[in-house]
Design goal:
With 207 residues, the chain is an alpha/beta fold. It contains nine helices and nine strands. It has helices at residues 4-9, 25-34, 49-56, 72-81, 93-100, 113-121, 137-147, 164-168, 190-201, and strands at residues 13-17, 39-43, 63-67, 86-87, 106-107, 109-110, 126-129, 152-155, 176-178.
Length: 207
């Protein structure tokens, strides 16, 4: 399994996907990977999510993970479905300990300095800043980055095609997560998904 550093460095944007229909999983994955975004986060918010992970991981070049992982039970289910990584909106001691013994890496969510300190105590230094805009935006992340050197972040929540470059310009940001690549509830349009992916892949985060 790839580690978080290689996952976060694979592309500047990780699409955050809400898959309602299993039959959409393959065409979505193919369009995103073809557009240059190999890392795909399938949120565990729908009944189709685990089946979508199983389908999408068969796409050549795809690195498929599970998002919105809330507890050890969901982490186990994601691993069983073949997820290469997991993402959580926050971090509990139970989830942190389960992740420490799991075969896939966890990117836990933080929003405050106390959250970062808890994550560090549990052994995590690669973190999701969530919800990025509601938690204070770029100014808040700059403040956290100044205090916690060496942490690499993936801001998610309110990130758009327009503001992603500003986030990616921060030295502490390895990549961003975005739902604009495949808007939830929109009609499936793989050409549009490919175009958005290609534009997002052209963005660059600072090394």
């Amino acid at each position: 399994m790839p580690d978080l550093d290689s996952i976060m460095a694979a592309a500047p944007v990780i699409p955050v996907l809400v898959i309602e229909r299993v039959e959409d999983a393959l065409p979505i994955a193919r369009a995103l990977v073809r557009g240059g975004l190999p890392v795909l986060e399938v949120t565990l918010r729908t009944p189709a999510a685990l089946a979508a992970i199983r389908a999408m991981k068969e796409v050549e070049g795809a690195i498929v993970g599970a998002g919105t992982v809330l507890d050890p039970r969901q982490l186990d289910a994601a691993i069983e479905a073949g997820a290469a990584f997991a993402v959580s909106p926050g971090l509990t001691e139970a989830l942190g300990k389960a992740a420490a013994g799991s075969p896939v890496p966890l990117l836990p969510g933080i929003a405050t300095a106390s959250d970062v300190m808890r994550a560090l105590d549990l052994g995590f230094s690669r973190l999701k800043f969530f919800p990025a805009m509601a938690a204070g935006g770029i100014a808040a992340l700059k403040g956290l980055s100044a205090v916690f050197g060496g942490i690499r972040f993936c801001p998610t929540g309110g990130i758009t095609a327009d503001n992603a470059p500003e986030w990616l310009a921060l030295p502490s940001v390895a990549c961003v997560g975005g739902s604009w690549l495949v808007p939830a509830g929109a009609a499936l349009d793989t050409d549009a998904i490919f175009d958005r992916a290609k534009a997002a892949a052209a963005l660059r985060a600072k090394a």
